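Subject: for your reference before the review

Hello V.,

The reviewers asked for a structural picture of the protein, and I figured it would be easier to keep everything in one thread rather than splitting it across files. Below is the amino acid sequence we used in the manuscript, unchanged from the supplementary table.
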Amino acid sequence: MSHQFAEIMFTEDVKSAQEEYGSRERLERFTSMAGPNDALGEREAAFIAQRDSFYLATVNKDGWPYVQHRGGPPGFLRVLGSQRMAYPDFRGNTQLVSVGNLSSNDRVSLILMDYPNRRRLKVLGHMRVENAYAVPEEDLTAVALPGYTAQVERVVYIDVAAFDWNCPQYITQRYTESEWAEIEASSHGEQS
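And here is what came back from the structure prediction:
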């Protein structure tokens, strides 16, 4: 059983860099003991369901990477199965850089952050975008955001190739306004 994330990301060039900087042996032991990490489990699904944003990287036909921030209500990125996620895509700034990049390379990388708890999940996958009118009704239902009034223009599917939990070192704790309000309310309740 191999660690699929390492299988994909640890190219010969990467292994050479790891060798040069002294981490190759340790990483070889780690990847031989870790699971395949190619199917999302309950832990990953619960983590993803709590996120209100993630970072998405694509690469254009000239090899230039493009990273964008995707946000919405918590849980807008949905786990549809152990190897599939989807989210509704709404009208934005209409640049459509990520969507356009898919025409020559469907590979994507996502980073999902939990800043308060200093956790990070990295996901590699293949992405496709379908116009909302062309997807099955059950898929529209699966990505629906009750109470969110923006119209879904596209449904974005990500077929998971691999994932990896990243170490918390150097993740600075940050809080959203609502998270901070909960902390303050909790601390005021303790002082009473």
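For the response letter, the relevant points are probably these. The chain has a mean pLDDT of 92. The CA atoms of residues 162 and 176 lie 29 Å apart.

Happy to draft the paragraph if you're swamped.

O.
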